[in-house]
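Q: What would this chain look like folded?
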Amino acid sequence: MDAIVQGRDGRPVQSEPVVLDALIIGAGVAGLYQLHQLRAQGLKVLAVDAATDVGGTWYWNRYPGAKFDSESYIYQYLFDEKLYKDWTWSERFPGQPEIERWMHYIADRLDLRRDLLLSTKITEARWDEARGRWTVTSDLGDVFDTQLLIGCCGMLSAPLEERFPGQKNFQGRIFHTARWPREPLDLEGKRVGVVGVGATGIQVIQTIADKVGDLKVFIRTPQYVLPMKNPKYGPEEEKRYKARFEELKGNLPHTFTGFEYDFIHTWADLTPEQRLAVLEEVHADGSLKLWLASFAEMFFDADVSEEISEFVRGKMRARLKDPKLIEALVPGPEDYGFGTHRVPLETNYLEVYHRPNVEAINVRNNPIVEILPEGVKLADGTVHELDVIILATGFDAGSGALSRIDIRGRDGRSLREDWSRDIRTALGMMVHGYPNLLITAAPLAPSAALCNMTTCLQQQTEWISNLVAHLRAGGHKVVEPTAEFEEAWVRHHDETANANLISKTNSWYVGSNVPGKPRRVLSYTGGVGTYRQKCDEVAQGGYKGLALA
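A: My prediction, written as structure tokens:
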């Protein structure tokens, strides 16, 4: 296999199919660990990635200000104590360069590079019913003949780049945040526009505002934000968090969102004064704790949602002061409730708009209609002239990465076409009609949105690895969820999701940011611990509901 691991430039394309036990698409958090586990079983396995190096999200998202909003000491693999403790983080929420170095550390420490094929994009996959195997093709013409096809493509890895007419005519630089140029980009003195104020847009805006000439921020949907507290770590902090390895290993997989904290308060049991004290405490923590460990009732009870939302709005208004900025940047009661969208952490983001070189442009009722050679044109005819346009316009989340590959299952059925009608999975890890296709960070699992990603991706890849071991021990070659099993999971998922306010809010959580995408809450909302339990029950029950052959 070493002969093909040479990267894109100048490497020979295979003249014969590469025969594998498993092909993994993706070399990020899930793909690297999946490769490590399957290789340990003695399988002939290869992980393929379009990037020039490992990292997944942390390879592509190299825009200014990109960083964790999970605490660094929980965004780690927990299967090996020494692997965990031999890496030291510099701060609570490190930036992309440090995270990318950690991913390199993982790949090198586990000696994974010899089974990686980089700079190679998987374009097609065909199920051969007669042979019970997948034929997979790359953009370079490589052909892989594999028993198992494992998608570790990531939940936010299909960027929405072509958003406006005329983008190709822009005379300056224009790019999506997830395709930030690898070469140095000089923004000094430039007229820069940022489209979008989600979590990514906020990180970019707060980072570049004092470096550009003029910054124009095009705001359609205002966001609730929480201030980030990001202390540096020295020897004492390092010693303290590393001493918690066993605690974290035992705790993280069973909390509601895979973070170290969980919901411990009940709204009805507290007085108004006690509720306010809880909100003040978790807000002051400088993390996602207010969202993920204050009151779970905010997701189900509209009155509780509004009270917590108003608390956050009040914090934001106090920092902004200017009524026009408040109107553009603070969600109102008519918009949506706190926590039903992705909640961003920020550092002096709101204060950026008080700078004389920053302009907030509210495009909710005056949308962008076209990109002209000289800049951005709004519906009222206004043209904002720019040198650089940064598109923080989001992703086709959950389903997008797999849908962009032409995957054909039994009888030639197309996953892209199936998901264009109805996004369905079994346990968020399999799809009926696509034998031997196993997936992570896909729809109808917590890892599609609502989880500390390493917690959920470790659980999913371990479950897949155990399933593979079960197949081999029983002499089986093919596994597929039955239609009945998939239907039962979809029904359970929907019953859980439709009971909360997330399902009633337009956001990428339900796919409403992608025109024509079937509406369904993409992430399992029953909780990370509950999801793990249900997956374990399937395994412990002998994988009932899966057809083995």
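The two ends are 28 Å apart (CA to CA).
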